[in-house]
# Entry
Amino acid sequence: MSSVKVAVRVRPFNSREICRESKCIIEMSGATTAIVNPKVPPNSSEAVKRFNFDYSYWSHNPKDEDFSTQEMVYKDIGEEMLQHSFDGYNVCIFAYGQTGAGKSYTMMGKQEEHQEGIIPMICKDLFNRIHDTETDELKYSVEVSYMEIYCERVRDLLNPKNKGNLRVREHPLLGPYVEDLSKLAVTDYQDIHDLIDEGNKARTVAATNMNETSSRSHAVFTIFFTQRRHDTMTDLTTEKVSKISLVDLAGSERADSTGAKGTRLKEGANINKSLTTLGKVISALAEISASKQKKSKKADFIPYRDSVLTWLLRENLGGNSKTAMIAAISPADINYDETLSTLRYADRAKQIVCKAVVNEDANAKLIRELKEEIQKLRDLLKAEGIEVQEGPDGKVVCEKRDPNKDEINNKVIGNSGNMKSPSKTRNRNGSTAEMAVDQLQASEKLIAELNETWEEKLKRTEEIRLQREAVFAEMGVAVKEDGITVGVFSPKKTPHLVNLNEDPNLSECLLYYIKDGITRLGTHEANVPQDIQLSGSHILKEHCTFESRNSVVTLIPHKDALVYLNGRKLVDPEVLKTGSRVILGKNHVFRFTNPDQARELREKITDNAENENEKCDTQQVDWNFAQCELLEKQGIDLKAEMKKRLDVLEEQYKREKLQADQEFEEQRKSYEARIDALQKQVEEQSMTMSMYSSYSPEDFHQEEDIFTNPLYESCWTAREAGLAAWAFRKWRYHQFTSLRDDLWGNAIFLKEANAISVELKKKVQFQFTLLTDTLYSPLPPELASSLSKIVQNFWTIVLGDKRIL
# Structure
């Protein structure tokens, strides 16, 4: 068992961060990466967070002594993983990070020398080692696949026939795999280089047509590496099969930071869904690895199937694989939240423990078990009364006999794996049979693929290459001057358009020739065949025309077509100059190059280096340059728009803050009023309870009994009796008023007396006792005399000289 290797790499500032005068918040020392929070005071405890990883690569400033180059990253991670693959292990390297953080540069790199990424370097090193170690006893074979996961749909980037969504299946031995995904045989590094280039072309075409960029999808490049060793002593051949998965994940981003809406928001939701699921999987695996004992079966559940990405990477995450993760981060303070999230993600991933094993003799064992499985499925179908036969076109044909009629019902299984039956009714047996046939066909495909010879694989690879190049040629995408291989190059004579993409990895990937005479550009639906076929929103069937005469190219827009030249909307024909930016529709951005003009321009610049205007015309422009130019020429000042937007956001923030403060103040006053009312209510209840504490329940039902006693009727007049009753009621309700004041005034002494008793450890408690002398609760004789005098004085004042007691 081994833990996932985790590396963090910080890139230089990009143009956006430089324009906003961003500050670097990343510090690296050895394997430790620290991030400074720009939102808190520098000396606070939350100012700096530190993380320890296997590797921390400082690629921020090329002038620094400890600057990490592409080669250094490959030597630490790529070489180790390649050695594991030669040892027979499955390996996986995946890059994670915010959009524009440098994932594609680390994985793919650039075409320039010393700028290549991990994928091309590991492929080059693979074939170098094969060339050095291959003998008569030891033979190697290499196959590759290239797929893209976009909105939970899998696309094959190498086979133009597989245009739709490929089905993800799972086999008990193979694990999750993509059905019908092309695995093409390669014999040297140049083959892989061309396939990567062609896959990127297909990815670019699909991305532009669907109004998305590479950051919207995950790219998975897989190398299937087989070693066959023949033992001359025993005449036995053993195999080691390794799978090298190289994954460039989609950029992680927040919807509120990107301002995404509509389709973009939906794409972002799918990306965040897969990356969130990946985070859940990593967290679950980390928790399991951290705990020594498994507490419950529920704790062991890992949500691999919640997204296509995690399902396909199941073996690479906590399974049979040696895995490395590269977290790409931005150094800018404006990206603090995303960078911190990436670092936490990576910190969690390093706790995962994988259980990799050497994959020896995998094919022989797999073929034997697949044959057994196929036989069981055939027996199951036979028991259902279905005969399975091979059709002439390789399809599985099922024949079912009806016991009541002497007829045969044929059911054909297409390549998609869906059963086509004339009957739409399904019963339990029929459903079971269909599932069995579907599984049978999948197993047949697997065993056919495993039994395919190397020569057959090479032949199939060549057929797919020809189909792929035919598709590119139909769209107008150029091939090399030899007319055979598709690739990025610079034609020496023919004017051409080269695509520009938001992702540098997909920029300058497609090349369209402008031939002598008329070159038409439109969609495949046009009545007249178009030399260059584009698709997507705002591309008309016949969009524009390029006219080339004597090395002068004129762009002629059609009516109502969206055509922009150097940021200006084009209505009338105009001559193109080398370096011109051409935008067609909403998504297709190109740079025009005329080799003859470029050559003359270079000569002029060499003769007169002071000509700044001509220097500017020859500068290499990218997608961002073209977009900013478009906004500027359309009267949109990007900086002014950004400032205006920031002012609007600031004003909105102030308005919301003021509203929140007002609501808080109103709530505070409301709560204070409620507290005062409750306090007043408590005091009133306390006072009422004190007032009535000396009365029994019967007192409240017989309040006038004393005045109806016959003993007093003879000595009182009606007026005196009424006055006595009034005085008694007043006395009863107010007799405790002064007593309450005395109680409140002396409560502090009572409290102090109880405190002293506790401190002296005396088991004595002091409390008030109310003593009254009434008909219903008479006082003891020793206390009655003093209270009787008080009552007599009261009645004397009220009734004059009359004595009632």
